């Protein structure tokens, strides 16, 4: 138990929220709603950007890293929110968006900080490649009339990239992190990590320090300032490439990385009503360093990216869950939330979230998932899924025994009572039918087995185990031979007697 509290993130329940859409009263409103999160079972709140911004990229275009946007409140309101969360046993982390700034940030117009950004006399052809938003941009370089040179922007042209190779920029990023940790944060979700570390010019890449050394420095800094601090990384790369961001097996860089590959495999499995793609992904997923962990999720605040699936498999998911072009984005993702994708099928929705909380990794919820919030396709781009929280729906579901909110509470409570799911070694089980995903987690003599039926038909299952099975979610005893109903899900604890 001592070790589990030291590495709290391994069995945490993270909840991502946007202060602006979670409450129309900013941080004060979020503080008033804190008991909703506590009752749900959340143990760590992840805040999307709340800094001053011109709002051209939903807050990710920042003009001041040391303040709260006046629309959302004050530093005092922020501190009160963090204090209220702490009072209920919840930690708070926030987005660290230091790959770029807004072009309205004072740094961008300060001649003494010219080297804080990436400039070139002409657009570079041997540096970064790949346009992130092909519907809005056609180049990674933009000419500045003020400076007379081109600046690099991996995202929108109004978001010039910071030159993270510059020691002054690195020191400033450390000051930003230190500032917010002094105000109570327990870490950061690091935005667009691969872009943050890439060399800006391939020609001189060999003469520059290893970019991963910078992540090591950030991790060392946060550990010195706050021994419980975490760095949760947005690294959407194949498994073997993602592992480098943990720290080459040492575990001295990112604390956790999102499992983008597993998430995309899950949607392919849902589309096929076959567990095969998810089972394959989990069997291929490397083990992170001892104190590191994967972060699992059903969806996040961006488009539901499917970019790691081959084109034909991506099309399968599009056909199943977003056939209309208006539901798709950038040719690689969906701008929908789960209930709409599953046509409101409550059995299937319940099964997917049961899967989330039983899979090995730290589960991350996006606000509103607990009440079945849906998207608004009339909003542009990724804003379709960043809709206002529906507090009327939350109120209606709070006391309903059959609501999604009640189901999520039960799942989270059961997850917290099954340390094997977070801490154990896991094994995918063959139960004879590809429609059923079954796996077991073992830790310190304890075993939990979870089975999930991806099909719209009943499936007989036999668990080849020795011992007594008890249904974790109901407390009932169970035989090793059972029938799973359409989209059914069960968790079992296996004991000797």
Describe this structure in words.
- There is one protein chain.
- By secondary structure, this protein is of the alpha/beta class.
- The chain has 2 domains: 1-99 and 167-422, TIM Barrel, CATH 3.20.20; 424-495, Immunoglobulin-like (Sandwich).
- Helix content is 31%, strand content 19%.
- The protein has 17 helices and 22 strands.
- It has helices at residues 2-6, 19-22, 26-32, 34-40, 75-87, 167-182, 193-197, 212-225, 239-242, 260-272, 276-284, 311-321, 338-341, 346-358, 391-398, 404-417, 419-423, and strands at residues 14-17, 44-47, 91-96, 119-120, 141-144, 149-152, 187-190, 230-233, 256-258, 293-297, 304-305, 328-329, 333-334, 362-366, 425-429, 436-443, 446-453, 459-462, 468-471, 477-478, 481-484, 489-495.
- The protein has an 8-stranded parallel barrel. A 6-stranded antiparallel beta sheet has the order 15-16-17-22-19-20. Strands 4-6-5 form a 3-stranded antiparallel beta sheet, with no helix packed on it.
- β2 (44-47), α5 and β3 form a beta-alpha-beta unit.
- α10 packs antiparallel against α11 and α10 (260-272) crosses α12.
- The longest helix is centred in the middle third of the chain and has 16 residues, at 167-182.
Which helices and strands occur, and which strands form pairs?
Elements: H1 2-6, E1 14-17, H2 19-22, H3 26-32, H4 34-40, E2 44-47, H5 75-87, E3 91-96, E4 119-120, E5 141-144, E6 149-152, H6 167-182, E7 187-190, H7 193-197, H8 212-225, E8 230-233, H9 239-242, E9 256-258, H10 260-272, H11 276-284, E10 293-297, E11 304-305, H12 311-321, E12 328-329, E13 333-334, H13 338-341, H14 346-358, E14 362-366, H15 391-398, H16 404-417, H17 419-423, E15 425-429, E16 436-443, E17 446-453, E18 459-462, E19 468-471, E20 477-478, E21 481-484, E22 489-495
Parallel strand pairs: 1-2, 1-14, 2-3, 3-7, 7-8, 8-9, 9-10, 10-14
Antiparallel strand pairs: 4-6, 5-6, 11-13, 12-13, 15-16, 16-17, 17-22, 18-21, 19-20, 19-22
Helix pairs in contact: 3-5, 6-8, 10-11, 10-12, 14-16
